[in-house]
Amino acid sequence: MPEISAPCDAPVNIGQAAEQSGVSAKMVRHYELLGLLGRVQRTDKGYRQYSPADVHVLRFIKRARDLGFSMAEIGELVGLWKDKQRASAKVKRIAQKHLDELSQRVAALQDMQHTLAHLMEGCGGNERPDCPILDTLAGQPSSAACH
Asked: φ and ψ at 48, to 5 degrees?
């Protein structure tokens, strides 16, 4: 006997919304609490019912999170996405600010990588207790190389 499926525009429960959007049920509730989904319909027994539009918003949020946008930025982006009269310049400003922050974080990580590589070059990793890595972490000048 063929399985009967719900129409594409039928509401879904939280588990189905989570599965369809790739977001955990816990995060679906969190996003709802933050107001990113707007008012979610409920059954007479109080169960959440998510529309296809709600699931689409959840996918939008997931993609934005995957790009590292903050929840505040995502809130702005969702609002702009829903506003058909928006100016794309507003969206670009948010994206540019985020890109600049990512670039700063990448540069900071590269600095850490170079510093750690330099410290490791000075350490032979032997049985001696002297070590410039630990000296540097302790804020002390290196007394002896790790040879």
From this structure: -70, 145
Structure tokens at 79: 């609002």
For the domain made up of 7-69, the CATH class stated in words is mainly alpha
Please give the pLDDT value at position 88. 96
Domain ranges of the chain: 7-69
pLDDT band with cut points at 50, 70 and 90 for residue 97: very high
Residue environment code for 23-40, b if the CB has 16+ CB neighbours within 10 A, otherwise e: beeebbeebbeeebbeeb
pTM of the model: 0.77
Q: Looking at 9-144, list the stretches that DSSP marks H as alpha helix, in order from N- to C-terminal side.
A: 14-21, 25-33, 52-66, 71-82, 88-121, 132-137
Q: Quickly state the pLDDT bin for 124 (edges 50, 70, 90).
A: confident
Structure tokens at 20: 């369809």
